[in-house]
Specification:
By secondary structure, this protein is α/β, with parallel strands linked by helices. It has a single domain, classed as Metal-dependent hydrolases (TIM Barrel, Alpha-Beta Barrel). The chain contains 9 helices and 10 strands. The longest helix is centred in the middle third of the chain and has 21 residues.
């Protein structure tokens, strides 16, 4: 079915103005099929975003529309959107455990370790082959997706400066939010991303923090249902 989703909005768990139930009610009112809560989670703020969101969703059984867990994380290379409960939980654990390392080794080395946070998640399948020999096939789990956001700070030089490791980790980027129509202003950057990110998805989100911005930008996608697994699958195909 064709679904309309806003994949970038904030609740009172960070710097938004509404609770998660209020956001779900607003989403239905503006014609959305669901939304992703992407509250801030970085080593430099005091928000306990992941815990707050997960506890909020577990305590509410009558949300007006499906709500998927995500997070907006801050890095020296820009801000990223994480999609998926498991990715958010692991990010929270990762940044907490490596905070002391950052103070010792410096921020550059700390964020280079970000690669390990994403890449260490693998899944194993078994191929018996023609001779009956078992071979383990290792590949990434479909347990998260990651996208670049706030593209207004991005230019061609920024793209060229991005660590090469990210091009294999990122699944999409935000070409439009409430104020920016990035595909119209810098098509050469959009072209750069499309060529460097496999199966790149171009996102249109509101980056809602309060007021009437929710749903002003949204993504139309074919999903069997509005769920975390379906959203992540959409990013990867």
């Amino acid at each position: 079915m064709l679904c309309k989703l806003d994949l970038h909005c904030h609740s009172i768990a960070s710097d938004g103005a509404e609770t998660i139930p209020e956001l779900a009610e607003m989403a239905v009112r503006v014609g959305l099929s669901g939304l992703v809560i992407t509250d801030h989670c970085s080593p430099n703020n005091a928000f306990t975003m992941n815990r707050t969101i997960l506890e909020s969703l577990e305590s509410v059984s009558n949300l007006q529309c499906p709500v998927i867990v995500g997070s907006e994380i801050q890095t020296p290379y820009g801000e990223f959107l994480l999609y998926g409960k498991k990715a958010c939980e692991q990010w929270d654990h990762y940044k907490r455990d490596l905070a002391p390392i950052a103070k010792i080794f410096g921020i550059t080395q700390y964020w280079e370790m970000f690669e390990k946070f994403v890449l260490h998640k693998v899944t194993y399948s078994f191929d018996f082959g023609r001779c009956g020999i078992v071979k383990a096939v290792i590949g990434p789990k479909l347990s998260y997706a990651m996208a670049l956001c706030h593209p207004n700070i991005v230019d061609r030089d920024w793209c060229l400066d991005m660590p090469k490791m990210f091009w294999g980790l990122v699944h999409g980027f935000e070409i439009q939010n409430e104020n920016i129509h990035y595909d119209q202003t810098k098509p050469e950057v959009v072209d750069f991303f499309m060529k460097n990110i496999p199966h790149c998805k171009c996102l249109r989100n509101s980056d809602h923090h309060g007021g009437d911005t929710l749903g002003m930008c949204y993504n139309e996608m074919e999903l069997k249902e509005v769920s975390e697994n379906q959203l992540i699958h959409w990013f990867r195909v």
